[in-house]
């Protein structure tokens, strides 16, 4: 960025940060991705994602592989697990090992394609671009499998990260 000598460049910036968070899961075997955009990423939102996954797969056992972030351990999350009556199995990754979590590769790909070097005029525009990304990729799950490094070939197991 440059400007004539003695003149300061004005760069438009948003006012107070209006944040939204993507909370999601990806099926390691099929490439199906479920992402919810929320104003917060608290325990309540994590529990809601688990409920969404259970509703999408009402007769399957779902294995969730995730990290040890504090929002993953809570009474609200535990209540969803108990209510699932054995249909929800939580597997915790070692601390500080994001490279073991397949969805981290998808988040990285998302950032490169959607948000890297972009300044969205509004949060609504950012969320629309984010939703478009996941809608497009859900139409080609084989691309998601490639991005997350899965070698699975559509196994019926529901392993989500």
How is the secondary structure organized here?
Elements: E1 21-26, E2 33-38, H1 43-56, E3 62-66, H2 75-83, E4 88-92, H3 102-115, H4 123-139, H5 141-148, E5 158-160
Parallel strand pairs: 3-4, 3-5
Antiparallel strand pairs: 1-2
Helix pairs in contact: 1-2, 3-4
The outline comes out as: elongated
Instruction: Give the amount of beta strand, in percent.
Output: 15-25%
Mean pLDDT: 87
Helix and strand pattern: EEHEHEHHHE
Q: Low-confidence spans: pLDDT under 50, at least 5 residues?
A: none
CATH top-level class: Alpha Beta
Helical/strand content category: alpha/beta
Domain module tally: 1
Largest sheet report = 3 strands, parallel
Total strand segments: 5
Number of helices: 5
What is the straight-line distance between the termini?
A: 40 Å
> What is the C-alpha radius of gyration, as a whole number of Å?
19 Å
- Assigned CATH superfamily: Ribonuclease H-like superfamily/Ribonuclease H
The strands making up the biggest β-sheet line up spatially as 4-3-5
Return the CATH architecture: 2-Layer Sandwich
CATH structural fold name:
Nucleotidyltransferase, domain 5
Helix content: 25-40%
């Amino acid at each position: 960025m440059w400007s004539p000598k003695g003149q300061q460049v004005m760069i438009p910036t948003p006012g107070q940060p209006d944040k939204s968070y993507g909370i999601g899961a990806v099926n390691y075997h099929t490439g199906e991705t479920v992402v919810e955009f929320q104003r917060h990423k608290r325990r309540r939102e994590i529990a809601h994602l688990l409920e969404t996954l259970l509703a999408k797969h009402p007769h399957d056992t779902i294995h969730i592989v995730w990290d040890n972030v504090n929002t993953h351990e809570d009474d609200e999350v535990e209540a969803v697990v108990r209510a699932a009556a054995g249909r929800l199995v939580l597997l915790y990754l070692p601390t500080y090992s994001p490279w073991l979590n397949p969805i981290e590769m998808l988040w990285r790909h998302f950032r490169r394609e959607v948000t890297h070097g972009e300044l969205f005029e509004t949060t609504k525009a950012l969320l629309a671009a984010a939703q478009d990304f996941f809608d497009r990729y859900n139409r080609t799950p084989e691309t998601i499998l490639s991005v997350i490094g899965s070698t699975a070939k559509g196994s019926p197991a529901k392993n989500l990260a």
